[in-house]
Amino acid sequence: MHDLIRARLEAQLLAGAAAASPAAAVGRLLAVQAQDVRGFRLAVRSRTTGTTVADLDRALSDRELVVGWLNRGTLHLVRAEDYWWLHALTASRQRVGNQRRLRNLGLDAPTSARGVDIVVDAVTHDGPQTRDALRARLDPAGVPTEGQALVHVLLAASIEGHLVRGPMAGPEQLFVAAEAWIGPAPAAPDPDGLLARLARRYLAGHGPAAPEDLAAWTGVPLGDARRALASVLDETEPVADDLVALVGGGEPAPLPEPLLLGPFDPLLHGWKSRDLVVGAHRDVVTVNGIFRPVALVEGRVVATWRMPGGTVTLDPLEPLVPTVVDALAADAERVLRYLELPPRPMVVGDGSR
Fold this sequence. Notes:
Blueprint: H1 2-11, H2 22-29, E1 32-33, H3 37-45, H4 53-61, E2 65-69, E3 75-79, H5 80-90, H6 92-104, H7 109-126, H8 131-138, H9 149-159, E4 163-169, E5 172-177, H10 178-182, H11 191-206, H12 211-218, H13 222-230, E6 236-239, E7 243-246, E8 259-261, H14 275-278, E9 294-297, E10 300-306, E11 313-316, H15 322-338, E12 347-348
Parallel strand pairs: 11-12
Antiparallel strand pairs: 1-3, 2-3, 4-5, 6-7, 8-9, 9-10, 10-11
């Protein structure tokens, strides 16, 4: 298990050499969970050296990176060059569920289609749009936006290939016309070729892994995940417990120094089971699907943390020795520096949160 943790942490860029840029970090992981802006910002932070949040925001403005509804129908940060082929693999699987949800929210097919047309017209002719700006166009047109209705109209536009999230405007990410922003979608790709590409890229950022892990991470059927890994069999080698890794990985890097990971970190999303990392601390993922920021020590979760008023506050889940607390305090300084926030000493809570 020790070697497996080391290998996966290195694949995730949390051990060994870090990436030199946000695009390089995201490219290694292929897709980074992105429904929480601070979450994907901190995911890049922990996998790069010498970067700040401004570098990530610049990569979004420069169209190197985009966010879209991809794996499992949730928002993911990807390189622009990877968007369309991932969209081809994952978007159509979301359509039936999206249409059913829209009906349940009171939007029949004509209303939903009108909503998509309004959104597409706005981002195509008037440029990047905030969520509130799109809501202000939909409401007068009789397209419901209350509750989750707006999100599912935007998701419908994304599924049809019209919409991605692009540049930041303060704390908010703007919606843009997908083809105008990152170029047109290519001709219909070869499904087998896409699965082989998916397998290689997934193992690069998540190996060693099994077909069940790939299926859980992407949302593709288990049969497709098996086909994907089978198609690159000559590029992989078996690892214990029916896992495979790309050939030539070598001895895994040592475990990293104590590290703070943000909410929804990819380390908690990349495999069918997260028990290897969270152990007994399973409540770091709440019953309603919130993935808390965690502290990682020797490859496993030992605490959660938060940042009220710009102060990193550590909430231990088990006793921590002073050297570990000091190391986490040093990483807390790096978190604030990365986010371009004023320096403040880390506070240790009583773990009763």
